[in-house]
Amino acid sequence: MSFDAPSLVSLDYTDYALYKYPLVNFESLLEAKLNLYYSENIKRPDITGLIIGISNVQTLHLCGGSVDVISRCVKHGLVLPVFKNLVKLSFATGNKKSWKLLPCLLKQSPKVETLIIKGNDGDTCDVTIGLLQVKVLDVLGYKGTAKEFEHLKSLFGVRNPAKPSFLIGLELLFNDEEGSAVLSFLRAKNRSKQFIFPVFAIRT
Question: Which InterPro entries does the UniProt entry name for this protein (predicted)?
């Protein structure tokens, strides 16, 4: 499939990942939402052209299927381009491959200031996610399990003395005991001036 839309500013693309994207011209694109999925009929899709074609966006939304497709393609040789204008990244997780992809994307996105993580309740792996440039971190769908809490702490383990404050919005769904543990941790971080956070919603 080819895209020749130099005036397009917003893209919402849902499809199976295809063999090739020979022409992708999104010269004016500011925002892209990718909903890519694997088809049993296309074992080794090549999304290189598509990813390069959207690399100038300022806002990028990746659903869980897209993260899975990109992760598999990276494993098979896809080199991620530099997203030089990207300031807001929405990233759906759910398995170990997705957590491994996130730090790679952040490394290639030097201007990212807002990171939205969706689906923190899936499998995780031991990766360090650099949040040095991130100013706003939203964790959506957090259920407060012990596994998630440990992973959340690892996400917040990197501190940049030059940028001591993060604005963190948490949509939390947990019981009182688990919620107290999360909030105690965040309040301790807040007192140490590592974080400033509002809690958007607490439902018990």
Answer: FBL60-like (IPR055294)
Report the amino acid identity of residue 136.
V
Helix (H, G, I), strand (E, B) or coil at 165: coil
Q: Which CATH class is domain 3-203?
A: alpha beta
The beta strand positions in the chain, using DSSP E, are: 3-4, 10-16, 24-25, 31-37, 59-62, 88-92, 114-118, 136-142, 167-173, 199-203
pTM to 2 decimal places? 0.77
Q: Is 8 helix (H, G, I), strand (E, B) or coil?
A: coil
pLDDT tens string 88-130? 999 987 666 777 888 889 899 999 988 888 876 555 555 666 5
Distances (CA, A) of 108 to 16, 41, 85, 101: 25, 31, 10, 11
Q: Which two tokens stand for residue 166?
A: 């993060």
Cα–Cα distance for residue pair 22/16, rounded to 1 Å: 16
Would you say how long the chain is, in residues?
204
Assigned token pair, 111: 């201007």
CA–CA dist 122, 173 (Å, integer): 15
